[in-house]
């Protein structure tokens, strides 16, 4: 157990590699109750959120969800989050634990009186059930309760006299569900999930496997790959930015980055052979010159090779570019690769 975003979180249960492979080949469950849960409601909520977030909130139908960014005036990333439209004028924002207070302060600073913002983080828990056997799990867990939500959608389901919200989202690259529920039934949900998943070889998973799984998919980690000094264009995440919609905070800076380019970009890489695993803050070299720094790095359990992401100068971002990673004074060869680094089995 380690401190994480103001919470005590498990790093591992049976072991990082074992949990990682369980999620890739069967099914695992993560306690994600540390994630912030904010409710935004009110008649102007949709239009106001569209001025605060980069993706186009107006495109969300009730029950729909989207990945998006909360930016500062300079286009830097305050937080990356998932936004769900849970009613005509109601929205759920699932935000990073370490950014929850900062997010609330920024939203409150810009919130009109007609919009309500409620922090339900301490009153609600959540778990993520992830893996190729996720649909089998859903059928066992819900019985005749109904069809699972579509990808990037959320729906309510009955659970032992209460209601839980089930979203078809995740942070592993596998199919799966994120389940949100009142904190009062958290233990019951956890035990029921483990019981329903037992025939499918479900295992509880910790922060270690969560990190190796997301990095194989090149999903960014806030505070490492994303920060207030970086914008979504630099991070290669322009797909989640709608520059054609109405004004939103940070838009002018992103438009400039799109039109004029950026000095650095976030690339994915693989090491070219055996050697020490790459780690954050290791220097990256191209033709003998330092061109950047690793933001995330690990030994990939699926690929059995060192992988990572790094911000490097614009001239060394092309796929196939040979790089060198400096590890304890020695340089090891690596190559810029296409994202994601791991491809799901057909």
What attributes does this structure have?
346 residues, alpha+beta, Gyrase A, domain 2, Elongation Factor Tu (Ef-tu), domain 3, 2 domains, 7 helices, 19 strands
Report on the structure:
With about 350 residues, this protein is α+β, with helices and mostly antiparallel strands. It has two domains: about 1-210, Gyrase A, domain 2 (2-Layer Sandwich), CATH 3.30.1360; about 220-335, Beta Barrel (Elongation Factor Tu (Ef-tu), domain 3). It is built from seven helices and 19 strands. The chain has helices spanning about 15-25, 45-50, 100-110, 135-140, 185-195, 205-215, 250-260, and strands at about 1-5, 5-10, 30, 35-40, 65-70, 75-85, 90-95, 115-120, 125-130, 155-160, 160-165, 175-180, 205, 265-270, 285, 290-300, 305-315, 320-325, 330-335. The protein has a six-stranded mixed sheet, with helices on both faces. Helix 1 packs across helix 6. The longest helix has 12 residues, at about 185-195. It is globular, with a radius of gyration of 20 Å. The mean pLDDT is about 95.
Describe what is shown at a glance.
Helix content is 20%, strand content 34%.
Q: How helix-rich are the residues, as a percent range?
A: 10-25%
What's the number of extended β-strand segments? 19
Mean pLDDT score, rounded? Answer: 96
> How many H/I helical runs?
7
The CATH topology of the largest domain is given as Gyrase A, domain 2
- Note the gap between the termini: 35 Å
Beta-strand residue fraction: 25-35%
CATH superfamily of the largest domain: Probable tRNA modification gtpase trme, domain 1
Largest sheet: 6 strands, mixed
> What is the architecture of the largest domain at the second tier of CATH?
2-Layer Sandwich
Radius of gyration over all CA atoms, rounded: 20 Å
pLDDT < 50 stretches = none
Form type:
globular
Helix/strand-derived category reads: alpha+beta
- Give the topology string: H per helix, E per strand: EEHEEHEEEHEEHEEEHEHHEEEEEE
CATH class of the largest domain equals Alpha Beta
